[in-house]
User: Fold these one by one.
Assistant:
Number 1:
Amino acid sequence: MKHFPVGQARRRLTPYLFLLPYFVIFACFQLYPLLKSFVLSFHRTAGLGEAQWVGLGNYFFLLREPRFWQAVANTAGFTLAYLIVQLPLALGLATLLDSRRVRGRSLFHFAFFSTYLVGPVFVALIAGRLFERHGLINRLLSFTGIQPDWLNDPWLALPTTLLASVWLSTGFAVVYLLAAMRSIDPALVDAARVDGAGAWRRFWHITLPGVKPVLVFLIAVGTVMSLQLFELPYVLFQGAGPRGSALTIVMYLFLAFFSGDLGYASAVGWVLLFLIALTVLATAWIRRFADSERSTFYPARLKG
Amino acid sequence: MSVGPGYILLGLAIVAGLSGAFALRTDTPDFDRTIWVISETHAQALKESAQSWKARTGQTVRIETISAPALQMRLMSLFLAGRQSASIPDLVELETGSAGAFFRMPAGRSPFVSLDAYLNEYLGRRPSTDRLGLTRLSLWRSGGHLRGVPLDCHPVTLTYRADRARSLGIAHPLNSWNDLAIAYQNGMKLELPTSSANVLMMMLLQQGVQLIDANDRSNLTDRRIAPTIAFYARLAAGSGRIGVDASRAPGAWVRDLVEERIDAALTPDYLIDELKALAPELKGKLAMTALPRFSAEDRPTSTWGGTMVGIPESSRDPKQAWDLLEWLYLSSSALAHRASTSNVVPALMHFEPTTDSTDDPFFVDTQSQLLEDLARQIPERRVSPFDAVAIAKLNGVLGQAIDAVGAGDDATLESDCSDWLKSASTSLQDWIDFGRFRE
């Protein structure tokens, strides 16, 4: 039998000892609930002590439940619109703030980022006041003669959520993009300028490739955050919005949980997890594609 | 032996953990009884009675205020934890919106103690109790047992700007909804949401319509629902519209009333306190009246919302918990205190006059006993775990009807509503059959 000296055993054990507290907490508060929710998703429940096996019944019911698909459609629509609006806006603002000609940049940094500091509930409360039918936004629009009913019109629920969400989180994206822009070698920009490249060409061929990894990160984070959208529309509309037009997947999960059927709510949670996993995989694929030779995103001469 | 940085960090982590545990150690003294209430107003109303309970029995009472959604979450966690939980309250307040989740369990396994025997014994002992909200008991029944004592009735009145009505030549009360629809064409604006079915539900309850019957069957095809939706949609949209949406932010509807964006609204009694607090400038300009009816058999009022107080099944001593409940919520002094500090009509009260005999100066042309009279006539209402789904389905049909009226495509609105309701009913029944917990 092989014997290890005490010192060697201690050295081998030490890292595990350090990992132990985290693992214990992870196992108790994350892994166990995760596994338990998976088991629960195959049951009809009325409290944990009262569970009836339904097999895949919760999943089958979910897939033919119109309100769930309404929540999926709302969430997907929001996610797409959010990425289309937020990223170009953040890129534009970051480019402006990166310019030395803009004065008071710190103030703008703070102004853009401040909404992110206060969080979605606060932003939703303020946005609720702004978007009221007789709120500030409509007062500003009064000279146009257009008075949208932002919070009561089912067609305007997602645009209103989108505007509030962009207001909330654009500052977050700006900070990341600005940091990425500032890490671009100034010599590259100077060389391009000497070569006669205009502002647009410099942006397209130097800035954009330089911030690409951050953009991919922001797409991934933005997508996952959008799929988990809950507090903002819930507080803004005090529920699922006019005719369920602000119902998101997480809100649907929340309502299922509050109806007392934890099994069904768990099934919704696992479907959401599946969607998020798909999104992460898709983002990874996009990143690989962007990095590949086929991609025209990078001009060949700038590739390392 | 040398001590490496790893051991120092480990030591620091242990010290930090122990310090955290020590800091979190509660210094509050142990209480004999604990109550969870849903608002600070409720907590304040109970404080005095809790002190007299201590003087009487020597038992201390902790009153914890927890917002309704948080309380539901806590209660669910408590029931999940089972009897072992150390923080079981003796009494818990619950709102209608939360009750369905706890009424899912089969009758024999309800998380709340059956209160029928206790309440019957109390009512037998107190024959002078004015059972204002006797129909209210149905709201808190599950599996054939009473799971909570109703604290309120929440009768609904039509509250309107009397000055506006006078200037437009509209005389109240209006006996039927048709009369109101015609009279309000003069320019009086009634709050009728186009994106929520709350007011529609009040109109349906007034007619005695429940969306889900006592046997958990969808009742969306009830013959009274389609005409009511069609009537509502024509009031809320199209050329003959008299309805407007109120602002959505909490309390903002009061500003709408002040600034004459709405002139009238259906108001459960708890909104009267909100009106008085947020719009003192309306004093002397408002009036309250019973609701118009659809037919002579309808109630002149409706009901919306509600709170119960119940005893969790895992309570340490249900009998003692009931004694506390009776003292805090049903004793003469407690009932009188609640009646005198709020416009909310208690579900049970005593014959002793609890309200001022003079008219409320905030309102004009209003009998002081209106709310109590209406409370005696509130329609029956039941709670089902599937209420939220049923209201969502009703909301969907209402939306279709309003769109049809808005587009001028309402020649066959009533039969269209019937068709939409049939489809919604099938879907609701599907939900009920799927979600019902079987014995």
Number 2:
Amino acid sequence: MRQKGEQIQGTLIAFIVLSLLAAAWFLLTPRFVRDLMFPSPASVWQSVTTLGWELPWHAAATFARVLLGWGSGVPLGIFMGLTMSWNARVHAVAHTVIEGVRPLPPIALIPFFILWFGLGMFGQVLLIALGCFMVLTVNTYTAVRNIPQVYLRAGVTLGAPRLALYQSVILPAILPSLVGGFRIAAGLAFGLALASEFMGAQSGIGFLMMVAERTLNTNTILLGVIIIAVESYLFDLVIRHVSAHLCRWTDTPLELS
Amino acid sequence: MQSSVVFQNVSKVYDEQGFPYTALDGINLEVASEEILCLVGPSGCGKTSLLNMAAGFDSPSEGRILVAGKEVKRPHSDCGVAFQADAVFPWMTVAKNVGFGLRWNRTPPADRESIIRHYLRLVDLEAFEDRWPRELSGGMRKRVDLARVFAGAAPILLLDEPFGSLDVLTKADMQRVLLDVWRADRKTILFITHDIEEAIFLGHRVVVLSKSPGRVLRTFTVPFSLDERQEQLKLEPRFIALRRAIIDVLAAGDGSPSISEIS
């Protein structure tokens, strides 16, 4: 566990670094860097005022895709990983398929998804869910394999039926190892949401950025980048806080800062 | 007397990188119902293998094992097991750990709390019921583990050096607790230890195993009644004489000169 003082020091350093970067942005643009190459804070703000209520609406659309895709892909991935550990035959089949498909970036499937599911929300959410599913399936299965055997043996000899063993022993035992998977999947979800919005969506920050790109409106593109960064940071923050609460029993509490 | 755990001609051969390694050789052993049988032997003589096979985690290369009349083929819940390693679930509070077995053996929810409290009081951890295991010392966690095994309804207990990691005073305390539990519940207990004093103090019989491959060298019947088993017994000449006799058997089985011969 990190010391409290060290933690405050870390936060302070992060704050200083961020302040320096922001100061550089304010000082260097547009005086030394052209607005087209890197828009100044003023031009980004201008873009905010021009977009008006459209901006929160697009931000919400992206966030909704992420939330729906992550929220369905993660539980399904955990379920799949658990099922693979439950049954050797499921493992044999699923392992082959998943290991075959996994190296393929889900982004490569976007044209097919558009053909199959059209330009609507469903296909985009499905793509995100698929990405999260893959991460959590492998993560869960590996975590189950690494549970200390003594916990499983204790559970069995104390009379827990198999389903109860999964519920009361296996699932809580693997939870700390799944936190990494939750966070990686969240990052992937934002990436996939943006990619699917670049290619054919009619809403979302990615859509906004793609339209802006056509007119070389770099103000809006930078604004999009900032919004995605804030959204994914906040989402990660929530994941870390909820995970830290769920795993409060561990020897090494999860780091929150 | 009805036998609760029976080892019939049990051998265990492990494959060590292509070379067969005999850990246990022709073990015949019966743990009678309501008996505390202590198994002593040098490290590596296959004590834990024997227990793992009785619990169904491992299967014998030859022979068979019966628990409550049924041949053991897979892990089962007829025996409560205390492991050498820390088996307390870190994600459950102390009370939840102790009550874990009660959730599956049809104990009415209304009775669970009083049972949990009873066993927590026995191991002197009543004040810690809402704590996480990480907040306890290693010795306290071991006591939680034992309370959990005792609280479970299994009529047979397999205990693998359960007090090995405890300090002297706690160890003596836990030995007394084990005898109290036995007095109240009359469970059948197979107790593995390398501490001869502990084996005599707790056991109705003490079985001595040889160094690898493990064979039964001799079985001693302990002549002390339950009421006699108090701390001071360990200092009495007849206790010490029995202890020396067991050490002699162990040493002879080892091929080294016996202690009596030396002294």
